[in-house]
Each structure stands twice: as structure tokens, then as C-alpha cells.
Amino acid sequence: MTSHSYMFTPRRVPYNYQTVPEALEERAKETPDHVILVHRKLDGCRETMTYQTLYLQAVKMAKHLVNIGIKKGENVGIYGPNSLQWVVAEISIIMAGAVAVHLTTVLNDPKGFVEKIKMADCVGLVIDQGTGDEQNLFISSCLLEFNDCLKVVLLREGKKGFDRYNDLPSILSKDHSDVELPKLSPEDDIIVFKTSGSTGEPNMVAHTHFGVLNVEYFQGPDRPSVLYNDRPFGWISGSRLVNIAYRTRRVFADSSYAAHKSNVMKIWNWMREEKTTHALLAPFFLADLINFKDEKKDSFLLNSILLGGQIIDDSSSQALGVYSEFIWIGFGLTENCGVTTLYPNIGNGEKIVMGDVGQPSGGVEMKIIDDSGSTLPRDEPGELCIRSRVAFQEYYKNPEASRKAFLSGQWFRTGDIAVITKSNRIVIKGRIKNVISRGSAKIFPEMIEKTLSEMNGISHVVVVPVPDKRLYQEIVVCFVVKDNCDVTEDDVKEFSAQKFDVTNSADGYGVMPGYFLKFKNFPILGSGKPEKKQIQLEAMRRLGIIEEK
User: Fold this and answer.
1) Which CATH number does the domain housing residue 393 bear?
2) What's the CA gap between 273 and 495, in Å, rounded?
3) What's the pLDDT band for 57 if we cut at 50, 70, 90?
4) Residue 158's pLDDT band (boundaries 50, 70, 90)?
5) Residue of 289, 348, 341 lying closest to 317 (CA atoms)
6) What is the pLDDT of residues 235-244, one digit of tens each?
7) Which of 138, 137, 130, 124 is CA-nearest to residue 166?
8) Do the strands 122-127 and 75-79 form a parallel or antiparallel pair, or are they unpaired?
9) Is residue 35 part of a domain?
């Protein structure tokens, strides 16, 4: 064994040099009636889609996109909550040769959303306009900014104010048999995700057919047969393309449901009814399940619960034997198409070491470097770097960020502090940059600070995290008001509720802070900047929070 902090896991399965539409067409021919998607809703509705239906609908919509002028290599934005129609739309964009740009928003700000669309060079937009008046107003305000220069397709039937746009139901009733779809290559870009911001300001990352189809965990013998995963489709961890390609039935719901404790046992019952074998759960949701274990009246067990998105500790093991036979812990990166390490088959009685994420996934290399970029000896903490054939090549339209992100030899700097131990384990210790990890989301505090600094009467704003047993961290807004201004904590909370969109946020939380604290003044560093660590400690004291050692 090398003394250097380096690990590599060979792949157990060969690379698949194929396109996503080719993989889907194969499945539709082999098992046309196999249900591949199941959508569960709080009102009791259960919607399903077979391979054949998914393929045929995607082909029809793809031909419509080509017919209205979408060309190979162009970017088409896609926005909306998790739905069957969303999956059809994403695959149709890919079939048309375009790149599906996943759009999300946490601000109730149409102009900001429009800027995202423009920044991504989108020539088209596939959008779920929603059913509520508030969402309809948001979408219509966004579309007005483009003055009909954007090719728009709606996922729901057009209502008042949207009737000039094509919608999916009407598209599926038309005949575009004379339209030819472009030839595709496995190395074409097909999707763009926005990074979490955990490595700095969020960037856009493009992935190819090859990258998406070669996440080894979902290809190999351990892949789930039925997976519950309600992560937002706009996140890499919510992507369903690799599930569809390798016959994993995907059961999902609106991501916001899991944010509410009142839905916990209902969601569990969905997993039981669907005979789910594996479930990718947010750690806070698993904590809620554990708290409700006395209400569990059935004997159903998942094969495995998959966890990731934050550092996992031994408290999760309370689910073993109650909800699941095993727990798997993963460490994922948008830049590496998701799953990057795996700690598999943690069984009853096995202690989870906090931060232990196992070993590299198949085909992934890892090393730990010091500040100069040199590889460290084992058991010494430093920055985790990864390299693999499915990793991205560069950040979209951001050459400076790309330059900083890579070492020579195409090693990607993750921004995580980690250790590779002498016993061949990878242990995550924390982040280099100040990013808040709430639930399964990474939140950039500077964005919240900038938004709240625009409030009348506010002099200074500092956003800090505090420990939270359910969500791992919670967001605290600490603020100082200007002289002779009477701004209360409730005032700032109300202002935040207007600015930060929770109702339409992907995960049901968005970036809405959990606490608001008014300070007379902030402790200041010698540089003149607020001393965030002292502000954080004071916030914890006032909230009665004790940091666990």
C-alpha cells in the first residue's frame, strides 16, 4: 500500500458508450410495459409511466422542438416541480440534440430568474407554469421579459395568459412524423446543472451522455430495483436519467413534502406500498422517521437507505432494523455526475464514524493535497481532489473559476477538507469555504446578506450557521440597524419572506433563514470586517444552542 494519500477503485463494469435516447429505446423495445416512473401525491393520486409511453412521448415532443427551430447544441432551459411531464421534457430536449439547462430559483424575483436564463444562453424554455396564482404570476412576469424571442413550451395545458404558447398535451396530439431528429454522439453535452455553491459562488456544469450513463453504482449489481428519491429534478442528486437507463424504477414526489414532519409517515407508507428496495433520503428526513418509529405499525424493511449531502453521524444507525436492513453513505459532487464515494452495507451493530464516506466509487481517483498542491502522507488532513472519466471538463462561461478548480493532470479541487487513512477510508472533516449545509442543500450566506442589506433601516447583516439536530445546520440572520431606525426581528423576518421563495423552492426550504437576531453592534476584526466566529457564538448563546463536541 502506498504511503501517499491516494486511492483508486477500478470499475467492476465496462463503460457504456451509448446515448441516453439509445438506452431508452432499447428498454422500450425489451420491456415496453415496464413501469419505470411512479409519482405519488398528497391527495392520494398515483401516476405512472412505462418505458414505451415515456419513449413515444419524448420522441413526439423532441420532434416538436426541432420543428420550432431548436438546433443541435443549443441550450433549452427547464423549470418546474418534479413530475412525469418534466421527465418527458428533459429527454425530449436531449433527443432534439439540445442541452437541458436545469433552472432553479430561491428568490421571488422574476428579473433574477430571467438573468439566469440569459446567462445560460437559452434559446428555448420548457416550463411548468403551476396551478396557483402566485406561481402563474411569477412565470408570466418572466416570459414578458423576453418579448416572444424565446421558444416556450408549457408542461401543463395553457390557461388564461398562457394560451399563445404550445403545451405538452396539445403537442402529443399532433403528428410530426415527417420531422427527423439529429444524430447524437455519446460525447455530446446533454445537461447543465448549477453547482451547490459549496466550492464557492454557484457555477454551471455540463455533462455528456457518457458521463450520465457511467455512474457505476447505478450500473452494477448493487443498483436498486425500486428507488424512492424525491430530490428535486433540477439537482444532480435528483437526476433520473441513469435510473431510466438501467431499469431502476424511480418513485418520487414533490420535494417540498419531506420538509413537513406531518408528511413523514405518509411518505414512508408510499415506500411500503411501492415495494421500494432503496431510498435516497435527506438526513433530516431520516431523523424525522426515527422520531416517528413508535408510529410504525408494519414489518416492511427497505434493503438500504442511501444518505448524503452532509456529514453523517452514528445517530442514523437507529433506523437499522426498524426501517432498513442496511445504510449506505455516499459523498457526491455535481462536478462528478453525483456519486463519488460509497460506504456500503452498514448493518445493525456497526458503528458509523462521523464523516467516514467509505472508498472511491468505481473509476474514481482521489488524493489529499496541502496548500502547495503536493500530495500529503496518509492520515494528514488536506484538500480532497478527484479525477474520473465522468467528471466535468470546465465551468460554463467561467474560465477563471475553471482555472482555479483544476490542478495539472485534470485533478479537480473539491474544496473539502478530508483524510485518507492508513486503513483505506476517506473521512470528510469539513469545508474550506464558509458554506451553510441545511438539509441536503448548500447555501451561500453572501447571497442572503446582499438581499437583506437592501432593506430600509439595516446597517449591517451577517449570516451564520448554527447546529441543528434535524437539518444539520440552520441559518441565522444577525443584523444591526441604522441610528434612529426602529427595525425589529419580525420586520426582517417579514422582509425575508417576501424576498425568499419557499412555496416554489425545490426542497420546501429554499434559503429562508430560520432565526433572526438583532445586535446593537458587531465585534470587529483588525481588518475592519465583522468577526463572524464571535457573532456565531453569540447567536448560539442567545438561542440556547450548545455545540456538540
Assistant:
1) 3.40.50.12780
2) 42
3) very high
4) low
5) 348
6) 888 888 999 9
7) 124
8) parallel
9) no
Q: Which of 250, 248, 244 is nearest to 230 (CA)?
A: 250
Whether the pLDDT of residue 93 is over 90: the answer is: yes
User: At a CB cut-off of 8 Å and minimum separation 6, what does 341 contact?
Assistant: 330, 331, 357, 358, 359, 360, 361, 364, 366, 426
Return the amino acid letter for 358: G
Q: Which residues, 6 or more positions from 374, have their beta carbon under 8 angstroms from its beta carbon? A: none
Which residue, 356, 359, 417, 407, is CA-closest to 384? Answer: 417
Q: What would the DSSP string read from start to end of 165-223?
A: SEEHHHHHTS--TTPPPPP--TTSEEEEEE--STTSS--EEEEEHHHHHT-HHHHSTT-
Kindly give, in sequence order, each residue whose CB lies less than 8 Å from that of residue 256, ignoring residues fewer than 6 positions away. 81, 505, 506, 507, 508
Pairing of strands 324-333, 302-307: parallel
Among 405, 431, 457, the domain boundary falls at 431
Q: For residue 338, give the nearest of 439, 207, 463, 479 by alpha carbon.
A: 207
Contacts of 42 (CB under 8 A, 6+ apart): 253, 254, 257, 263, 266
Same domain, 263 and 250: yes
pLDDT computed for residue 165 by the predictor: 87
| Cβ(145)–Cβ(111) below 8 Å | yes
**Joined grid coordinates for residue 521:** 453592534
CB atoms within 10 A of CB 23: 19
Tell me phi and psi for residue 55, to 5 degrees: -65, -50
Helix 20-30 / helix 51-67 crossing angle, nearest 10 deg: 140
Same structural domain for residues 404 and 463?
Answer: no
Number of H helices, E strands in the chain: 15, 27
Range of the domain at 75: 50-184
Phi-psi category of 120—alpha, beta or left, where left has phi over 0 and alpha has psi -120 to 50? alpha
pLDDT band at 513 (very low <50, low <70, confident <90, very high): very high
Q: What is the CATH number of the domain that holds 533?
A: 3.30.300.30
Output the pTM of the full model: 0.84
Query: By three-state DSSP, how is residue 354 classified?
Result: coil
Mean predicted confidence (pLDDT) in 55-65: 97
CB 190 within 8 A of CB 314: no
Tell me, yes or no, whether 332 and 456 share the same domain.
Answer: no
CA–CA separation, 83 vs 140, rounded Å?
20
